Amino acid sequence: MEKFIEKTMYATRWLLAPVYFGLSLALLMLAIKFFQEVFHVLPYIISTSEADLVLVILSLIDMALVGGLIVMVMFSGYENFVSTLDIAEGQEKLSWLGTMDASSLKMKVASSIVAISSIHLLRIFMDAQNVPNDKLMWYVIIHMTFVISAFIMGYLDKLTKYKTT
């Protein structure tokens, strides 16, 4: 009975495979929105002010960072929790595949969230004259919460690695 339960529990990891495939669909949706934004701004590129163009570019950078985060979570999560990716020898392979454990993935996600939050905060600052001061304060507080959380997670990760070695 114990062996059956263990085999069944181990097999349930495959329930995550559709979740990671769903992330590839989320990546496709993000790519569509990215190019929608590019095509939306192209006709107005000459008449757009520099500040507005910078805001659009920051929005595109934000989407690119989110896309990278999706790819990291999708591939690393699949490799860590479902199965190793079978990539034939000689085919293009991302250099970090197979090297990111759950702990390093967590740190990459945290640092990506801080980077995304930084870009968003920069966009807010670029348009600060149109943002009420109390909202601006909350954006900074939320961003600093992400920064401090990532720092604490990194510090705790370093402590646990130091104690186990």
TrEMBL record:
Membrane topology: Multi-pass membrane protein
Top-level taxon of origin: Bacteria
Subcellular location, principal: membrane
Keywords tagged on the record: Cell membrane, Membrane, Transmembrane, Transmembrane helix
Subcellular localization(s) per the UniProt record: Cell membrane
Stored Pfam families: UPF0114 (PF03350)
Keyword Membrane: yes
Transmembrane segment boundaries: 12-35, 55-75, 138-156
Family: Belongs to the UPF0114 family.
This protein's name: UPF0114 protein BKE30_08675
Natural source organism: Alkanindiges hydrocarboniclasticus
